[in-house]
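A quick word before the example. In earlier lectures we treated sequence and structure as two separate objects. From today on, think of them as two lines of the same record. Here is dTDP-glucose 4,6-dehydratase written that way.
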Amino acid sequence: MKILITGGSGFIGSALIRYFIDNTQHHIINVDKITYASQIDGLCEYQAHEHYTFYQFDICNAEVLSQVLTQHTPDVIFHLAAESHVDRSISGAMPFIDTNIVGTFTLLESAKAYWSALPESKQADFRFIHVSTDEVYGDLPFDNEENKPSKFTESSPYLPNSPYSASKAASDHLVRAWHRTYGFPAMITHCSNNYGSHQHNEKLIPRVIACALAGKLLPVYGEGKQVRDWLHVDDHISALIAVMEKGLLGEVYNIGGDCEMSNLSLVKQLCRTLNELTQSQTDYQEKIEFVADRLGHDRRYAIENHKICSELGWSPKTDFTSGLYNTVKWYLDNPQWLKIDGDEIMKPLFSGSSLKKS
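And the structure line, produced from the sequence above:
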């Protein structure tokens, strides 16, 4: 098949591309704007590969987007292009509106026009997979309060709490509307927090590793009680493949790792793993520092993944302890990905002063 991936130079997109090229004969078309978070080095070995084509442009550019669709005639589109960092959306929401909402609208319009012009036989096989986040559902209580769901399901109401999650919720609604109104063959996925190699160091796990190796304090928001459901990126990729191959048009599939953990517990486990792998003379846990909490910080995310497990035969395979160990080892073996020296990303992304050490 020919598979077009928007945002293919990002963390999840590049992992998806590496999987396809290493394990299939599909031809991959990567469309990426290339922003600060793009991981160009993660795909450098594929630049001259016969089954890989890369285009650098903004998905808000309808003219170029339509040209690429017409030229390459993809059978599947995975839409992963998005601004994705909550902190940045709080300090400046406009890029999130532009890419996540206007960009999705532009892509849907171009893809619908392309799909409508296909022969009926190709129309029937075409798939559009919109990759979204569990954050569109808002948050969950720490304890199972009366009449409160214990996990997010595909029927959970949308209650986004940050500019980022609100922009992703809007993009979900657009995709659903294009399917319902025009019969556009789309599906939506919601994933929990991803981790693994090749992730940008503004995200929690690589950020903590980078700060630790740079001899800096390890910032944890508030008291670190916020709970997240962790999903290894390789398991996310296998879920997306299952949706592409077996998913039903118009359906939503939630992808969770069955691994709930508080931010503080995660950072402490990271520190223990770093202690083991680096044989540091200093216990990295002593570097944990609580800082002023993020504005509107969601309490807890947890995904009920029964639907994708029962209907598509998928399940997460990566044990978190071994997955985290291998992730830390990969960053230690590839320290250039952490960009420790002189990189502005090492400056705090949060506002407010330190509160106390753990």
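Notice the following. Residues 341-358 have pLDDT under 50 and may be disordered. We will return to this example when we discuss secondary structure assignment.
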